[in-house]
Structures are given as C-alpha cells and as structure tokens.
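ok here's NAD-dependent epimerase/dehydratase family protein:
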Amino acid sequence: MPVSDLHVVLGATGGIGRALVRELAAQGRRVRAVSRRLGTDLPPGVEAVAADVSTADGSRAACAGAAVVHHCAQPAYHRWTQDFPALNEAALIGAAAAGAKLVLADNLYAYAPPTGPLTEDTPQQPTSRKGAVRLRLADQLLDAHRRGTLRVAIGRASDYYGPGTIASTAGDTVFGAVLAGKAVRWPGRVDVPHALHHLPDIARGLITLADHGAADGRAWILPAAPALTPREFVDRIGAAAGRPVRISATPRAMMRLVGLFDRSAGELPDIWYQYDRPWTVDDGQFQRTFGPQPPTGWDEGIAATVDWYRGHHPASTRS
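and the structure:
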C-alpha cells in the first residue's frame, strides 16, 4: 500500500463520482476530484483537477500520488462499445503507475438474466451488448490484479437514486416527473420488484472495498434495501412530495421509438431483461465479509432525494 492516503475519483461529476467525493470528504479523507469539466460545488478541502482520463498520459497525471483510484468514469451511454475499452485501459495504466489500488464502480449488466436474486455467484453470462462490454472491462481489471499489476476491487450496483441523481432510470424521469405533476413512464413492467441502490450507500460501499484487503480480486454486490416494485417506489415518492402520482409501463417497442429521439433511451431495449421480470439483489456476502452496513431505508432515501430536487432542480417543481 502506498504511503499516500489520497483517494482519486475519476469521473467526479457523474452521479456515483459526485456522491463518492462527498462521502470521502465527510469522512475526512484526502480527495482529488477528476473530471473533464469540474463543477463549483465540491466540498471544502477537495482538490479539483480537470483532465482527460481517456488517455494514458491524462490518467497518469490525474492519478499521481494516489493510494486509491476510484474508477467512476464512463463514456456517454450510447458510446460504451466504442469508447469504454480505451477509458478502462487508461484508468488501469494511471492507477498502476501510481502504485494505487483501483476500485471500479460497476453495474449488474455482466450477470445472466436472473431466475432469483442476483448474487456474486450468479453466472456472468450477459445476453446484451452492454453486458458483454461491462464483463470485458471487469475481466481486464481482474486479470491485471491476478498478474500483480495492481490491486483491484469491484463494487456492483443496480439503477440508483438519491440526491444529485439526474440521468439514472430513477432520476429526473421519476422524481422530476412526480414533482412536476406529470406521469412517470417506467420501462417495462411496473408491478415486479426492481432493485434500486441509494447513491450514498454506493459511495460508502466503494469506500469499504477500498479499505479492506479482503475485497481485492473480485466483484461485490453493494448494500441495497429490499426491492420494491416501481409502482410502490413511485407511490412513496408521491407521499414524500405530497403529490398525486401516476405511473405507466412503457413497452419495449415504444422504447425503440423513443430511441429515435433519445439515444440513451434507445439503448434500454438491449437490457430489457432487467425490466420485464423481477430484478433483485442479495448483498449477504458483502455484509458477512465486511460487517453490517445497513442500507438507507426507502422513506429516508426518498425524502432526501425529494428535498434535493426541490432545492437544486427547480424546474421539476413547476406543474
């Protein structure tokens, strides 16, 4: 482990990266926030660095002096196949050059369509293009770990919600719609359970993986509250916001049409198995290995997210 105690967050202006920077700062860690274009709302004491970490040189410079590199950077959703491999390689090079441990913020796309709750032992046999990309990225990093190039740990989460979430499936199209008095249009079925992670829980989980050698060399499912159905989730948002709510299911064929105008939405049919059946997780291995890390309760997490939308995303409060 390097003498340094510096945590470098690549992709610090994305949903997970921003939450991670805030949690690290709240814990009194030394933090460098790295992104192409940094905002002005970083916590006091955080070092801000603007860099292109899709290149090896940019990544080496951004990661210099790090003890831990948190890889939260990603290309535009519709550009994963083209751009993610080079970005992943650059993050690996930068972390290795610093002698740092690399912690990847990953999702659940690498797993096969489930027949029960997803666990770390669920077969990694993706049936989607995006899942194949994510599995290839994770395998590249874990292979580097096995070869002794650097230490690697991977934390996996489902769709997320929480303060600061805009682009997630459970972001503006859900919270913003409810607060604006509009109907929520959810992809797929609305009455089957769907796992959602709370952003601060993801951040705390990734920090736990950074701190523990037992996390190294494998992927972990991060703590999450027991899954609700999308309808139950939206009903709770309505209750917290004091607004009537409506939710409707968007069929796959309709999502393809939406994709003609919204490239990110057009990518969802590729992972439709996540929305047309129960999509739940079991975080038991994480809890047993690292000790209890209770996830945020639904009412607490939803209330905090509604408050954030009211204060930071005022367009969503206009009907």
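+1. The two ends are 53 Å apart (CA to CA).
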